[in-house]
Every structure is written in C-alpha cells, then in structure tokens.
Amino acid sequence: MESLRILIFGLPGSGKTTLATKLAKKLAADHLNADEVRGRFEDWDFSDEGRLRQAFRMSDLAKSVESQHVIMDFVCPTRQLREIVAADVNIFMNTIVEGRFEDTNKLFEFPADSVKVSYTIQEKNADQEAERIATDLMTADSR
C-alpha cells in the first residue's frame, strides 16, 4: 500500500515544521523535513538545479516510506516543484507575507485557484490545525 503523501509548503518561517511535527504525531506519520534531508545529502544548493534536485529527492523519499502517511515539510516555492512532489494532500502555510530569504521571496509562487490546495492555513495555530486536518484525514481513511 502506498503512503498518503502530504505536502506542507510555504515561505520560510510560516510554521511548516511546527505544523508538520504536530500532525505527524497525530497521524503516526513519517516526517520528512527538507532541511534535515538536505543535511543528510550534504546538498545546500539553492540554485534552480539544486531546488529541482531537492524536489525529486523529497518525492522519492516519500514514495519509499512504508507508513500509512508521510508528511513532506518543504518550502517547495514553485508550481513546477509542487508538481514534481505530487502530493495527495497539499497544505499551504499562508501565514506570512515574506520570509527571511529575499531570493526565496522573489521565487515563491503563491498557489492559484487552479492549483490543488487541500488546506490553506492563515494563522499560526498548529495545535488546532493539526487536530482538524488529522480528523479529516482519518475520517477519509476509514471510508
């Protein structure tokens, strides 16, 4: 059985890791933090090629997980990178207007209406949001 792949994306500092950590506990999910993955592969290249490589890496790691759910906690700044990741559930952390890295701010593409976003989080309230999303996903899993 393939894991349900959940992407939590948004600008640096938007609360992705906090939400991912809490949601992973509630779902007993594997949690792939993009910074930890970059560290494991010693790849801190944030060029277009480096970001592309990281998107494929996150996708491949998520596909290799054997648990029911896997959470990818990843800035994933462009539509192209989100398509590569190909998550089943997309959670957009829309809690800040800009992050601490100017290059990422310029590159970041906010999701358009036509992009599949399952949840848009507008306030940093990880406990409440993790509970709501976990309940939704567990209800859907039991169908």
Primary descriptors:
5 strands; single chain; alpha/beta; globular; 143 residues
Describe the model.
- This protein is α/β, with parallel strands linked by helices and 143 residues long.
- It has six helices and five strands; from the N terminus they run E-H-E-H-H-E-H-E-H-E-H.
- Strands 2-3-1-4-5 form a five-stranded parallel β-sheet, sandwiched between helices.
- Helix 1 crosses helix 6 and helix 3 runs parallel beside helix 4.
- The longest helix has 17 residues.
- The chain is globular.
- The two termini are 16 Å apart.
- The model has no long low-confidence stretch (mean pLDDT 93).
Q: Please report which band the strand proportion falls in: under 5%, 5-15%, 15-25%, 25-35%, 35-45% or over 45%.
A: 15-25%
Q: Which overall shape is indicated by the principal axes computed on the Cα atoms?
A: globular
Number of helices: 6
Helix content: 40-55%
Low-confidence stretches: none
| Average of pLDDT | 93
Q: CA-to-CA gap between the ends?
A: 16 Å
One letter per element, helices H and strands E, the order comes to: EHEHHEHEHEH
Count of strand segments: 5
> What order do the strands of the largest sheet run in, or round the barrel if closed?
2-3-1-4-5
How does the helix and strand content classify structurally?
A: alpha/beta
Biggest β-sheet: count, sense, barrel? 5 strands, parallel
